[in-house]
Automatic annotation (TrEMBL):
Residues 1-29 are annotated as: Disordered. One of its GO terms (cellular component) is cytoplasm. It comes from Cryomyces minteri. This is DAGKc domain-containing protein. One of its GO terms (biological process) is sphingosine biosynthetic process.
Length: 537
């Protein structure tokens, strides 16, 4: 599953003037450049009409040497353009606005040039930064400046330009390739978009918690994790430990550049596990509030952004480390072994159910995704709500409405024995890994987590059927899949001395814990600004 960088292009050659672009006349939307070339703001794309089909090398364009240190190395291939059509001896090319990273005008003593950096697809799952450079007539300078600003408006829309990023690289994430992916696939996209970037490698497990806890949140907009899902988990928790945690979690968008074995965050928010496509999505990402789940266990408090599991998923994930050589097959193998053994994980569970009926869950999902609400709006009930003038000391994590696992059960909660529990799985995002849309009804900020419970003693046929149904999208409707929207729960594993509990893919002690949804407490960047890149229920 990858994001097409050319998404959103209807007819790239249609001129915007016919559609009533606010920019003005067709003359206004076109910039004459060089001897015989024009740049036009089309409907969804920048239209480049040039004398020949060979892109000029910015370093020799009209004899001008680009001075910007941000300028990317231009390519020398002729096949750079996404679409091209020959008109006489001229060629028209369209570069989707989404792929435009930056545009600027360089002034020299005798001439000026416009430089446009963009992300060029070299395959379905990879983009590379390239540049166009054209001479701009001195007489056209003012128009060129206004035109460049319009191009940036089209390219960025509501997304913040030149984001200030703290980049964290886990040198041991995935197959230990994160540094290589960053240098080759990610950094050139950020440089091309003129982002401000400050890179740090994590030195040990838990280092990202400390970095986030000490982060000067006024200096950054984003913490970008070149990692699996482990580093984002640590960053949310580090921000959550700040004195002004609510403000920090609201101010700083936590994002993932997929470089790990588990890259669910990027799959959900950007629809890709390609580092270069994810980098483009982050450059163009829209701020999106995210519910976080407070987990209390013993006297500890932790924030979870992705999932909690007790039973087969936790065990498959955490007890198959010795099978790493199998790659992603280890999950399928481990899962099947336990399914065939009809393994059960007895526990007592109390759940605060918000919506318990699948039809109602589907309706709520459809209503939310078709709502016209501003993409980045936070409801007044969100846990991160901050009032002007709040004292930082009062801006810590919100108080837990349900208390902690050490308190008496909240009013109205009832512990129910589940002696045949096979899979207790709570999710805050839809995809748990590529093609595993376990929680199709999950939404970033609906103030609910989604809970799936499956008995461990169902027939082997039904169990194996549910494994393939996760891929096909039939999982949600299976009768043995109990799917609920919830506000919180308490779970007490029993009859076993030891076992596996996974919070965001990390192992925690095999002890009772309690979960409470903290509505819209966190912030991420997403492609759509409103939902996950997964098919709904
Ligand atoms: N320098 C380091 N040395 C050892 N561990 C580290 C280092 N930096 C980060 N970590 C730890 O690596 C763990 C896994 O990180 P991450 O999620 O990025 O990769 P992954 O390959 O998807 O992980 P997983 O091992 O869960 O499959 C995190 O819990 C983090 O604390």
């Amino acid at each position: 599953m990858t994001t097409s960088a050319a998404d959103g292009v209807r007819d790239p050659f249609r001129d915007s003037s016919a559609e009533g672009r606010e920019y003005g006349s067709s003359e206004g939307s076109t910039l004459n450049v060089g001897r015989n070339a024009t740049l036009t703001l089309g409907m969804d794309s920048l239209i480049v009409l040039d004398e020949d089909t060979i892109e000029r090398d910015a370093s020799n364009c009209c004899g001008l040497i680009p001075s910007s240190k941000h300028l990317c190395i231009p390519h020398k291939n002729a096949d750079m353009y996404l679409t091209q059509r020959h008109i006489g001896n001229k060629a028209t090319r369209a570069i989707p606005f989404y792929n435009i990273l930056w545009a600027n005008i360089n002034d020299y003593s005798t001439a000026s040039e416009i430089v446009i950096n963009y992300a060029h697809p070299i395959s379905k799952s990879c983009v590379r930064t390239k540049s166009l450079a054209y001479a701009v007539d001195k007489a056209d300078h003012r128009h060129a400046e206004a035109w460049t600003e319009s191009l940036l408006d089209c390219a960025y829309g509501e997304s913040q330009r030149r984001k200030r990023m703290k980049v964290l690289i886990n040198p041991f994430g995935g197959k230990g390739q994160a540094k290589k992916y960053y240098d080759r696939d990610i950094a050139p996209i950020f440089t091309g978009a003129w982002c401000e970037v400050d890179v740090e490698r994590t030195q040990y497990s838990g280092h990202a918690v400390e970095i986030a806890q000490q982060l000067d949140t006024d200096r950054y907009d984003v913490v970008a994790c070149c990692s699996g899902d482990g580093l984002p988990h640590e960053v949310f928790n580090g921000l959550g430990r700040k004195r002004d945690a609510r403000r920090a979690l609201r101010k700083i968008a936590v994002v993932q550049l997929p470089c790990g074995t588990g890259n669910a965050m990027s799959l959900n928010l950007n629809g890709t596990d390609s580092p270069s496509l994810a980098a483009l999505c982050i450059v163009k990402g829209l701020r999106t509030p995210l519910d976080l789940i407070a987990i209390t266990q013993g006297d500890r408090l932790m924030l979870s952004f992705l999932s909690q599991s007790v039973g087969i998923v936790a065990e498959t994930d955490l007890a198959t480390e010795h099978l790493r050589w199998m790659g992603s097959q280890r999950f399928t193998y481990g899962f099947l072994i336990r399914l065939l053994g009809k393994t059960v994980y007895p526990c007592d569970v109390a759940v605060a159910v918000e919506i318990g009926d699948k039809a109602a869950i589907r309706d709520a999902y459809n209503a939310a995704v078709s709502s016209k609400a501003a993409p980045s709006s936070r409801s007044s009930s969100c846990s991160g709500e901050i009032t002007e003038g709040d004292d930082p000391a009062d801006l810590g994590l919100p108080a837990l409405k349900f208390g902690t696992v050490q308190d008496a059960l909240p009013e109205g909660w009832k512990l129910v024995p589940y002696d045949k529990m096979g899979n207790f799985y709570a999710g805050n995002m839809a995809y748990m890994s590529a093609n595993a849309n376990f929680f199709p009804a999950a939404l970033p900020a609906d103030a609910c987590a989604d809970l799936v419970c499956i008995d461990g003693d169902i027939s082997r046929r039904a169990a194996i059927g549910s494994l393939s149904a996760v891929e096909t999208g039939a999982f949600f409707d299976m009768p043995h899949v109990h799917y609920r929207k919830i506000k919180g729960y308490r779970i007490l594993p029993k009859q076993r001395r030891d076992g596996y509990i996974s919070i965001d893919g990390e192992r925690v002690p095999f002890e009772p814990f309690q979960a409470e949804v903290l509505a819209a407490l966190g912030t991420v960047l997403s492609r759509s600004g409103r939902g996950y890149e997964a098919r709904g229920p």
